Amino acid sequence: MTAVDNKNSRTAGADIEAMFTDRWSSKAFSDQTLKQEQINSLFEAARWAPSGNNRQPWLFVYSTSGPQREKFDSLLSEGNAVYVPKAAMMVLVFARTFDDDGNRIRTAFFDTGAAWMSLALQANLMGLNTRALGGIDLDGAYEIANVPADKYETVCGIAIGYPGTDADLIPSLVQQNFANDRKDISVVAYSDRYSP
Ligand SMILES: Cc1cc2nc3c(=O)[nH]c(=O)nc-3n(C[C@H](O)[C@H](O)[C@H](O)COP(=O)(O)O)c2cc1C
To answer: Is residue 1 over pLDDT 80?
Structure first.
């Protein structure tokens, strides 16, 4: 199978490594499957993310195929259901928001976000495409993934797979499928004092 060139034309506003602008979330996935070693590499990258008190509050439950994958796909919003099922793997992401003593882990979502970004960058370096998915049935995810709702909170889903082409998309998605831009650094980072 020929690899799809998933590059984009983003330009950075300061000197950074190309991996930060190279990663983008295409909606086009090819039907190429993933090897278990590749899946392991993705979660290994996530595992090394920093977290408050090194609690590592992230939890990933993934499915690639079969009846369980169909259940994962059944959680998708209408908009996501038209492209995510084609991705080789879907991941449900949870954050451990309460510890064993019932105390809230305030940084759980922040930490889990760091782990997701590590996974996404590793995926991109491996030639894979990722797209995070807030549009899922957050409550339904607990039962399908067998995750206790009193300890964890559903964060989002992630679609992962080899990038596809426009031919892998329904026609209405083709125009929307591009690498978008960012706010200017001057409105997100301030020296000494926030001064909008
Ligand atoms: C937490 C989160 C939830 C998202 N939810 C969805 C979603 O439900 N459907 C979708 O198509 N894209 C979703 N996205 C993708 C974003 O729209 C995308 O990351 C953003 O536009 C930036 O583009 P980039 O990832 O290509 O840099 C989500 C991204 C994040 C981080």
So the answer is: no
